[in-house]
Amino acid sequence: MGRRSGARAALDAGGVAIVKKVKVDGSKCQGHNRCHQLASELFDIDDYGYSHQKNDGVVPPELEEKALLAVENCPERAITLTDD
After folding, report:
1. Which terminus has fewer CB within 10 Å in the chain: N or C?
2. What are 57-72's pLDDT values in tens digits?
3. What's the whole-model pTM score?
4. How far apart are CA 44 and CA 15, in angstroms?
5. Other CB atoms closer than 10 Å to residue 57's CB: what's the count?
């Protein structure tokens, strides 16, 4: 059988999947909403126009590239991407 295509989670030295997470620092966010425009699957906007992460910030492997774009495009540097 052929291999399935698609992104897969990276594994640590013990073979355990590395979970990536995004986090929005609410004290830095100024409501530009670039993150939401780039990755609406990962970010939501509150009633005041400020962003926050969805799903406890968990980034599925197939959305890692979008998460990186959001981090790189935040003018306030309010978003971080970490291995959890």
Report:
1. N
2. 999 999 999 999 999 9
3. 0.80
4. 32
5. 21
H-type alpha helices, the chain: 34-38, 64-73
Rounded to 5°, the CA angle 20-8-55 comes to 40
Among left, alpha and beta (phi > 0; psi -120 to 50; other), residue 69 is: alpha
Backbone angles phi, psi at 40, to 5 degrees: -65, -15
Break the chain down into helix, strand, coil percent, rounded to 5.
Answer: 25, 25, 50
In whole angstroms, how large is the CA radius of gyration of the chain? Answer: 14
